[in-house]
Amino acid sequence: MANVKCNPDLVRERAKCSFDVNELIHLIDGGENATKEKRHFEETIFSVKELQDAVPEEYLSHKDRYENAVRKATILRDVCREYMKKYNYKPNRFRVGHGVFKDVSPFLLHDGMFVATIIGQGTPEQQAEWLPKAENMQIIGTYAQTELGHGSFIRGLETRATYDPKTEEFILNNATLSSFKWWPGGLGSTVNHCIVVAQLFINGKSYGIQPFIVQIRDLNTHKPLPGVKVGEIGPKMGFQTANNGFLGFENFRIPRMNMLMKNAQVLKDGTFVKGMNEKLTYGTMVMVRVGIVGDCSLNTSLAATIAVRYSAVRHQSKIKAKEPEVQILDYVTQQHKLFIAIASSHVFRNVYSWLSKSYLNVMKDLAQGKQDHLPELHATACCLKAVCSRDAGSVVEECRLACGGHGYMTSSNLPLVYGFTIATVTYEGEQTVLLLQTARYLVKAWLAALQGKVLAPSVSYLSDWLKNDNVRWQNTPEGIVKGFQHVAAGKVKAAYDTIQKYIKLGKDYEDAWNLASVQLMKASEAHSRSILCEVSWGEVIRTSASPNLLQVLKQLAQLYLVYWTLETSGDFLVYSNISKDDIAILREKYEELLAAIRPNAVGLVDAFDLRDEILHSTLGSYDGRVYERLMEEALKSPLNQESVNASFHKYLKPLMEKAKL
Ligand SMILES: CCCCCCCCCCCCCCCCCCC/C=C/C(=O)SCCNC(=O)CCNC(=O)[C@H](O)C(C)(C)COP(=O)(O)OP(=O)(O)OC[C@H]1O[C@@H](n2cnc3c(N)ncnc32)[C@H](O)[C@@H]1OP(=O)(O)O
Ligand SMILES: Cc1cc2nc3c(=O)[nH]c(=O)nc-3n(C[C@H](O)[C@H](O)[C@H](O)COP(=O)(O)OP(=O)(O)OC[C@H]3O[C@@H](n4cnc5c(N)ncnc54)[C@H](O)[C@@H]3O)c2cc1C
Fold it and tell me: What is the ipTM for the molecules in this complex?
């Protein structure tokens, strides 16, 4: 990238960067070698001609766009397979995926959930049967759980799998419209297999939801098998190329061994054998929620890179009347909009790495029959997924708005990035629903704290606060982290007290819960924010980096702490010992941090190391040729391929002529 002829503003920005951009790239990637390997892989992918689109996708019809995405998905699969064989390298498909598809691969659910569920829910024999076929794409699958009538409340799913001991088969049925599967990615026209989550019935008795692996299309003709009704759900806000679909069964039989039985089992005679914990059936969702936190980091870095580079190139208005128009990045309001995006991406990445480790530890424990830390993992993954996805959506939208009119252009890529980022707020557990899951855990933890019990690490601050809620406020990062814990503890207590108040007024627990649920949701958000602050600050101070880089990383981490303290200062005034003077000091600190980060802004987004092919943006490319690219892309419009459009002769001319009469 270094030899590209760049916009002079970007050249100047890069020259004033105070840290070594390559050092930060290596830190993000996990070492210099990892960067080399990543770059080599990406270079290979983006030099494949067939993966490059001649015409921007947006001009294609819905059908052509899908077909183009499948074409590219298959080429990408082949190239990756060869590459992995040759170099023994496991690439991050999500980064290049953005480059190749702009939006989402029709194989996303195959890679992200189908294969993962076979691994997580299948017995060793079932894995041996299906995993090799799924991994080498002999079969293509998705995860079909959500139905027209139920997505959040999965105990309410209606798809039935009724066991027939005579034939040792399950009979799948979707008797009502609301029971039809609705949403699974790739289901529309791509996959031939599904993980179907259905209610198990044996001898008329319900045994809850279980995962089944089901072939739905013929492997040669791709026609739906008899008894299967399947199709695509149509255009959406984003995810256009994900090929989301619907599915229903009519007396469709599958062998007994197609129920994934790592947890619960159905024996030949129809005996149901309970698993260690019925919630382990929800395991794939927990894994993906963890992954989404990492995805939020990537999505935020895409938007930040585009908006910061654009803001360095774009000049508009003046700060001082007699001086030239300034780079819009010099407006402190612009820095306020954008630097939190850079900081958030780092926070999400650090928290993702922390959460992944917890996830892997819990998986190891479960393999040994220990499930003590599962509730804590579930609660933590739920609230972090909810808050990070919501933050990422807001940050991406703020970046888009920060690019003014040009941010509204599809060619900026910000609308697309927003489309797939905001989807993470809903899928894999709608945000409020997940926050309320965490609230269940917090309320239990609070009760345990009141009883003087030892709490799990992520909630031990509740006991600390009970012992001493009168800690003096300190305007240091550690003091702010403590402040976030005080806010969370105060909110958990208030929500808990509210439930108790309603119970005393004669409400039963469920109604009291519902009445207190806004507070419970906010308590859960505050808990999540305290984890984000504590973990990310902790990771930064433990980072080994050169003094220059460490200084910048600390500035970003502090910016995140101060930004969110100021954003939620009302909560701090209510639940911590912060004073108005402390808030004034933090405001000053925030302005200092914005000024300190300003000279490094372009260097910081360069360090996300997102190639132009991944950014896909007229506004965000490395060379900053913004206006040239906007014009080049505009000229690709089919309407610009003819000097006079047929509609002139057909409609406009007659209209004008009629007006003359
Ligand atoms: C620069 C760094 C960059 C790194 C880049 C990394 C990039 C990595 C990217 C990875 C991304 C991966 C992406 C992969 C593909 C993504 C595509 C996804 C497309 C979308 C797919 C989907 O949406 S699939 C469908 C998802 N559906 C849901 O999520 C449904 C949500 N609902 C539920 O989960 C449940 O209904 C529920 C949890 C809300 C409630 O369940 P239930 O009613 O059964 O339980 P209760 O509420 O009664 O609670 C009872 C009890 O159980 C506990 N519990 C509930 N769930 C769990 C669980 N999963 N584990 C453990 N325990 C659980 C609950 O807490 C209760 O406990 P109590 O003690 O009784 O309180
Ligand atoms: C882009 C995209 C891709 C998807 N891909 C897949 C896929 O591959 N496979 C799959 O199975 N599914 C998929 N889904 C479905 C997704 O998992 C669900 O849409 C999601 O879990 C939310 O469920 P819902 O649609 O039923 O929302 P609802 O639950 O109907 O939510 C509507 C409102 O009700 C509120 N609400 C619901 N329950 C409660 C409660 N208990 N307390 C308080 N408020 C509540 C919610 O907060 C929300 O405000 C996808 C969805 C999207 C958008």
Answer: 0.98
